[in-house]
Amino acid sequence: SMLLKVAALQFKSTNSYDGNIEKIDNLIRQAKEAGADIILPSELFEGDYFCQIENYKNYLLAEEYETSKTLAHYQQLAKELNVVLPISFFERCGNVYYNSICIIDADGTKLGVYRKTHIPTGECYEEKFYFTPGNTGFKVFKTKFGNIGVAICWDQWFPECARIMALKGAEMLLYPTAIGSEPVLTKDSKDHWQHVMQGHAAANIMPVIAANRTGVESINNSSMKFFGSSFIADEFGNIVESKGRDDEGFIIHEFDLDAVRDNRIDWGVFRDRRVEMYKDILKDDDSNGR
C-alpha cells in the first residue's frame, strides 16, 4: 500500500513579503515534523490579496518562472525537508501576467507550472484586471509522493476541471484558495465552497485538499474577511480534517493511495462513462448560435 500524508496550511497575512515567507516556512516545518509528504499553502500567499483593488503598481509584484526568488527559496526548502510543495505565485511571462502555481518535487526540482484557467471578477475579486486566463490546460504532476492535480481557487467551482485532472491520472486534487466576504452577493459562501469540492472528491473518488487564507485584509478603502475553513475530504467526499474560520496552522491526513484507487475501480464510474454522449458540454448554451 502507498501511504502518504498531505497537509494544508492556513494563516493570516502580515502584508509583508518577508513576514509571510517566514510564517509559511514555519508552518511547512511544523507540518513536516508531523509527517507531511505534500504541503499546500494558500493562493498568492506572498502578501496581502492584492486583487481586492485595481492598481497598476501591483504588476510590479509579478515574477518570472525562471528567475522567481520565491520559487528558488521553496526549491531549497522542498529539497531540505524532502516534501512536495505546490507554490502559488503571480507570474509574468513576456507582456502577460498569470495567476500561477509551480509544483516543486521533494528533491527541489520544478516540475512545471499550471496557470489559473477561470478568472473571476467582482468587488474584492478584481482578478480580470491582473490575470490573463491560463493557457496550460489542466495538468497532473508526477511527484515523489503520487500524481497530484492542482488547480487554483475559482477553478474549484468547475466540475469539468476536477474531472479532467482525474482523467489525466490524478490521485488527489489540491486547491489553493483566497476566498472570504462576498460584498456584492452579501452572503456567506463557506458551506457552498466546501460542498462543491466535496462533490469533486465523491464524483471522482479521490481526496480533495483546500488551503484558504484567514483574517481581515484591508487595502485603501477595501476590506475583506477571509473565512479560513481549510479542509481535507476523503474519496467519498467526507471532510476528515478542517480548520476553523479564524484558526492559523495546518491540517494533515494520511491516505493509502492504493486503497483509494481500489475504491475508484470498485465504483465503476470511470468504466461506465459514455464520452460520445457528452458533446453538449462543449456548448455555452442551447441556442446553437442563434
Please tally the helical runs, counting DSSP H or I stretches of 4 or more residues. 6
Helices and strands: which structural class?
A: alpha+beta
Query: Order of strands across the biggest sheet?
Result: 6-7-8-9-12-13
Query: Oligomeric state of the chains?
Result: single chain
**What gap, in angstroms, lies between the N and C termini?**
54 Å
Number of strands: 14
Poorly predicted ranges: none
Shape: globular
Mean pLDDT: 96
Tell me what portion of residues adopts beta-strand conformation: 25-35%
Helix content: 10-25%
Write the layout of secondary structure elements.
Layout: E1 3-10, H1 17-33, E2 38-40, H2 69-81, E3 85-93, E4 96-104, E5 110-115, H3 127-130, E6 140-143, E7 146-150, H4 159-167, E8 172-176, H5 190-204, E9 208-211, E10 214-219, E11 222-227, E12 231-233, E13 239-242, E14 249-256, H6 257-267
Parallel strand pairs: 1-2, 7-8, 8-9
Antiparallel strand pairs: 1-14, 3-4, 4-5, 6-7, 9-12, 10-11, 12-13
Report on the architecture of this protein:
It is a single chain. The protein is α+β, with helices and mostly antiparallel strands and 290 residues long. Helices cover 24% and strands 28% of the residues. It is built from 6 helices and 14 strands. It has helices at residues 17-33, 69-81, 127-130, 159-167, 190-204, 257-267; strands spanning 3-10, 38-40, 85-93, 96-104, 110-115, 140-143, 146-150, 172-176, 208-211, 214-219, 222-227, 231-233, 239-242, 249-256. The strands form 4 sheets. Strands 6-7-8-9-12-13 form a 6-stranded mixed beta sheet, covered by helices on one side. A 3-stranded mixed beta sheet has the order 2-1-14. A 3-stranded antiparallel beta sheet has the order 3-4-5. A hairpin with a 2-residue loop joins strand 3 and strand 4. The protein starts with a strand and ends in a 23-residue tail after the last helix. The model has no long low-confidence stretch (mean pLDDT 96).
